[in-house]
Amino acid sequence: MKIKYFKARLIKTEHIDINEECDSKDKEEMKQQIIKDIKNQYGSNISVELYYMKIEDKITRIIANQNNPMYHPLTCGNDSRHTPLVPVREGDKIVLICPDCDYRQEYIPF
Ligand SMILES: [Zn+2]
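That is the input. Now the predicted structure with zinc ion docked in place:
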C-alpha cells in the first residue's frame, strides 16, 4: 500500500487528527516528524499515539460522521441546503463531492 493516513491522538488533552500522505519507505521518518511537531506545539511531556488509517477506513469514518446526528455534516460550498457531501476515492486520495451540483472539496477536516 503506497499511501497511508496517519492519525495522531494527544493523550489527556485535546484530540487532533493529522492526515499525511507518504510513501511507505518514508513513513518512519514522517511519523517521527509528526511526533516532533506535536511536541513542539503542545509541550515535550505530552504523549502522542500515532497509527495508520487505511483509505477505506477513512471513507467509512467520513460516511459515519456524515450520518451522525451529533455532528454537523460537511455541506456543499455552493449551497449548504444541498445533500451533504459524499466521500469519493480518486486514486490514493479522497475528495468530497456534492451529489446535487459540481462542488468538490479536497480538504477533509477530520
Ligand atoms: Zn452542491
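Residues 76, 78-79, 82, 98, 100-101, 103 surround zinc ion (CB under 6 Å).
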